[in-house]
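Checked the freezer inventory, then went back to the computational side. Two predictions to log before the end of the day. The first one is the construct we discussed on Monday; recording sequence and tokens without edits.
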Amino acid sequence: MILEKVKQAIRKFDMLKKNDRLVVAVSGGPDSICLMHLLNKLKKKWGLHLHIAHLNHMLRDNESDKDSLFVRQLAEKLNIPVSCESIDVKGFAQENKLSIEEAARNLRYDFLLRVAKQTFASKIALGHNQDDQAETVLMRFLRGSGISGLRGIPAKRALGDCLIIRPLIEIRRREIMRFLSSKNIPCRSDSSNLKNLYFRNRVRNELMPYLEKDFNPSIKEMLINLAENVSWDFDYLEKAAEERFKKTSSASKEKEVVLKRDKFITLHKALQKLLVRLAIKKLKGNVRRIDYRHWKELEDLLTDRPQNSIVDLPGGVSAVKKNGKIIFYHRNPK
């Protein structure tokens, strides 16, 4: 039963506590509708305070407006407060030279954090499932990701002052559809998911079926298992890196993080990479994907480049070699 599997995931990853205040991201699609109904079933037992959040990306004209109306009506039916907002994702993407996917993701998380702050919620629930996990791992492999990316989608992670949780992360998409059908629960269908304009859609609609048919019918299960195994390895390395960071970093100013070069270069490359990620995280609060070319440039900075050489990293962060130190800082501090 899907509800029992969700309870197991909540316990396994310690997602919820009694009386948690929770923002639930609801697009109107099958995953988020399933998540909303399951959390509503758990609301009384856990004493949960639920608040629905819906962001209209304004990408599908009238269809997007109908999604918003659907979510409002669901909130009214379940007697759960709701926050809805519309934003021009396409215009934001053009203005900031981002892909539509990246712009939508950034705006969506900003919106969810604002709703969480307004409602005094400490957690945000998202509807990612096991199929999303498999697709994400495959996408990141194709992009040349390292161990951090191959972890896939974490069951929970910090975002600002909140904790992102994904109670459906161990549920297959077919189980979600079966649950909705058996309960006669309506949901919205996003027509853009059928169009192969975006990378994820091409992976989902073309590549994954091709791999299942011609190479491995259990490819999704293999990718899901890979993500779990890599996640345990990464957790161990990350804890080791945090201990090394204390010994390798020196007194840092508010808008920069300083690592001692002589100690840094003696570390294994795996720990070096994680220390760089920690440095960026301390500056930014999060870490965007760091490409292989960035790692190579950092290696050159450490070994071959002269004093005062600079490497630009993603997210507006740069690193400079100066006076026996590697200093990470914001390129355009506010």
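The second is the one RB wanted added to the comparison set:
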Amino acid sequence: MKIGLTTHLNIRMNFSTYLLFCLSLIFFQSSCNQSHKAHKDAITKPLTQNSQYIFSIGDASVTLLYKLQRQIASTSYDSLQLRKMVIDRIYVPNERLFSYCLGYDQNSFADKYSNALKQRSDSLIQLTKTFEKINLDSTIINTMKKIAEKSVIKFEGKYVIGFFEDAGCIMCGCDNATMLGNTYNSYYKNPNLLKVVIAHEINHNFFETAKKADPDNNTLLYNAIDEGFANLFSMKMMDVDKFTAFNMTKDEYNWLENNEAELKEKFRKVIFSTKEEDWNPYSEKIPNRILEGSPGDIGYFLGYRIIEEWLKKNDGKKWEDVYSTPVRHILRESEYFK
């Protein structure tokens, strides 16, 4: 999910508003919930009144950039005005995301996104109208609040949800301070699926922060447990079944269970590999990977099963203990390969 914009929900890949002054940001972070309630649908307000786009949740901030992007796209600016708006309102408040994570300086960002806002303004405006109909802003904010309230891990980071032409992921980034959610992705049109995905992706931040010192954090074993645990986290936070958490039909999941023995024997051979090319076939939701008939996401399934067996064999353990237990210990104590 994160890691240099490498993938997420299946892919770790390569590949915004705000306020003119920092003092305004401090003020709005303390009052954003009240402001949002009062101006929930006020996307046509002047750009200087965009406090409803930034929310404070725990130690995290969430920016609904797509609303500002729609506002800019709906307004006529000459080229110089548009470039200044893109830099001042989108780039500067999120400079770490766009420079460190996506590799833009101010000029290259203004070049790309000024053109994008002009060329795709009609489709962007239409998409945000769709988002209003399904209350996307409430889905995102309420899901994150629920996670912050229920989770045993500190909810922190900076999340920017908007239109990003560079990112194919649903939610990803380079670290907790550079998390982006790409509203071009079709998941943002389905609130029920999106809630599960948000929980999944946020748990990657929780897990990877907790596991910085794990000596196996660059292995396929780690990746599988990271993904499987993110699905388990979605089940716990969103109160959904495993089929929903895996975004699979019952038949697809049953195929994985029916072929588990052969799948895990193949995985055993590469489980401590640190090569990305060894992980890719296990991480992709592409049919027929590893074995003919597979629905994909095999690594997610195997990681989930390792955790499931570990919990069964350790009565005193809770699912939250995954955060504090080295992945090699989880594997050994699960007796998964015995």
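For RB: The radius of gyration is 21 Å. The chain has a mean pLDDT of 85. Let me know if you want it refolded.
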